[in-house]
Design brief:
Keywords: Disulfide bond, Extracellular matrix, Glycoprotein, Leucine-rich repeat, Proteoglycan, Repeat, Secreted, Signal. The chain is built from three helices and 20 strands. The strands form four sheets. Strands 3-4-5-7-9-10-11-12-13-15-17-18-19-20 form a 14-stranded mixed beta sheet, with no helix packed on it. Helix content is about 5%, strand content about 15%. By secondary structure, it is mostly beta strands. It binds 2-acetamido-2-deoxy-beta-D-glucopyranose (2 copies). The site of one 2-acetamido-2-deoxy-beta-D-glucopyranose has 4 residues, from loops.
Amino acid sequence: MKSACLSLLLVSVCWALPFRQSGFLDFMMEDEPTSGDGPDLPGSRKPKIPKITEESDKDLMPDGPEGPFCPFRCQCHLRVSQCSDLGLKAVPEKIPVDTTLLDLQNNKITEIKENDFKGLKGLQTLILVNNKITIIHAKAFSSMVNLERLYLSKNLLKEVPSNIPKSLQELRIHENQITKIKKTSFSGMANVIVMELGSNPLSSNGVDNGAFTDLKRVSYIRIADTNITSIPKGLPSSLFELHLDGNKITKVTAESLKGLKHLSKLGLSHNEISVVENGSLANVPHLRELHLDSNALTAIPSGLPEHKYIQVIYLHANKIAAVGTEDFCPPGYNTKKAMYSGISLFSNPVSYWEIQPITFRCVFDRSAIQLGNYRKK
Ligand SMILES: *[C@@H]1O[C@H](CO)[C@@H](O)[C@H](O)[C@H]1NC(C)=O
Ligand SMILES: *[C@@H]1O[C@H](CO)[C@@H](O)[C@H](O)[C@H]1NC(C)=O
């Protein structure tokens, strides 16, 4: 699974899974085998493999005259240098210069120093997930002219590192301590396709206007579970998926969605949205899926009957007190509108027996509607 995630961008099945290294190195970790060595006689102690100390992290183990170096306890094979789950407190020295994938996740690295990755010109993927990194030297990435994927999630970073290589296509930096996305944080990063920034302590206006403007190719942005109160301004028109769930956004303005002509999925669940301005949906003509559940809406957003492609709309757990027969579907039955495949309305203060069946005349199947006060099945 992991290698599939690494080699394929935009594989949604990978996003759904928590980022966790599979047991590639697990067999290396078993210092004391529990079986297979015969009975454990009292007094006859098995030789113990000594615990590796911090000092020995820097030791090198030559591969013999024919092979290149590989840092002690790492595995270097086919240009992949695997150094995850080793309790490392620093980036090991002498990483093979032809490495294209360097995996350092699940260690205890606290700092990335200026020369830690020096000379790694061929590096395409750098995985530093789940360490204790607080500082990344401003020149630490300067050798990596080919870097495409940088995974920095689950660290203690207070800001987006400066001087990220312009070749980068994917940045994952969720679950850090970043308080501000600055206008200059991503300047010139025209190759980025995937950006994951969620679960950082971003305050109300924690994202500067235009912070994403330079990401001309970006397809996926996720900023979930922060304290931002509005949809970031100046999002690129290339955007295909925008996930802003679990924030403190109070309204959807038409202006904030202007120009997002490719947007297909918009996630705004678990916010504090009371209003979706008229004209908002018209600004995202290719939207297929809209999640507005667990907000403070008092009415069905306007513009649904005119929208050509929307198929899924989640509106459950809001304060919607009335649903009219013209709220979802255009008048009449013969329409060019895509049929809905999912509408949820449960947990709203509307009595579902008061909603007329004709309201859902452009829904693919009756089972696509979740109306009652609890979800069936
Ligand atoms: C959001 O703000 C509240 C109140 O100030 C704070 O307790 C919480 O930790 C903040 N959450 C994030 C993700 O920053
Ligand atoms: C939004 O549209 C609804 C119905 O289409 C209309 O009743 C309402 O006055 C409009 N609101 C604004 C602020 O234009």
